[in-house]
Amino acid sequence: METLWDCGYSSEKWAPNQNDPKSTRILINEVKKQPRVTAKDLKASLELANICVHESTVRKTLNKQGVYGRTPRRKPLLIKKNVCMSAETLQKLGDAKGQ
After folding, report:
1. What GO MF annotations does this protein's record show (predicted)?
2. Rounded distance, CA 84 to CA 55, Å?
3. pLDDT category, 2, cuts 50, 70, 90?
4. Strand stretches in the chain, DSSP E
5. Fewest CB within 10 angstroms: 18, 36, 41, 43, which?
């Protein structure tokens, strides 16, 4: 017999509704504590509370609460070579504008 989401719900029965206030509260509190947490990590924290949901359910629930984007974009690493190149470029632009 197949299981649904690997949480023990059989495919013959429907999984219980997980959009209850308790699970939403747990998700919001986790996001407030650690804003860069991923949907996969949030799913794991809900499973510790015996609430089995899919990652897409976590994202949809957070989006309804006004919390978007669980994977923030990061700035590129500024290494010495890139900093020197940008300084030279700015200097050349400054010389070109001055003439």
Report:
1. DNA binding
2. 43
3. very low
4. 3-4, 9-10
5. 36
